[in-house]
Write a structure and sequence with these properties.
about 110 residues; alpha+beta; two-stranded antiparallel ribbon; 3 helices; about 20% strand; binds zinc ion
């Protein structure tokens, strides 16, 4: 499963390992930092997801668990795109991945 890092303005970090759907649910309402600071009070600053610069993702054949109700064995980027669309999967993650479908060796094709 993917992991997501959240950080408050004081620099406290929270890591969550969860499915894309769980991440989207988690982010559908604001979360406050629960790190205890002075006098045993929680920090309570707003947590925001940290977007890390990721190395280019290359398509890999294999089981994809989060694009349809049941895991699907995907053999090509086109199949991945088709299955995701058929199941209405329009998450940010799929859009990010979608940006790479037309990229080969760092160049658009
Ligand atoms: Zn904090």
């Amino acid at each position: 499963m993917p992991s997501y890092t959240y950080r408050c303005s004081a620099g406290h970090e929270l890591d969550r390992i969860c499915s894309i759907a769980q991440m989207e649910t988690f982010e559908s309402y604001p979360h406050l930092c629960e790190v205890m600071v002075k006098k045993g009070r929680p920090c309570e600053r707003l947590l925001q997801r940290v977007y890390r610069v990721q190395p280019p993702v290359r398509f890999r054949e294999g089981w994809y668990e989060h694009i349809a109700p049941d895991p699907v064995y995907i053999t090509s980027p086109q199949q991945l795109q088709d299955v995701a669309r058929r199941h209405g999967n329009r998450s940010k993650y799929m859009q990010d991945l979608g940006g790479l479908w037309n990229v080969k060796d760092g160049r658009e094709v």
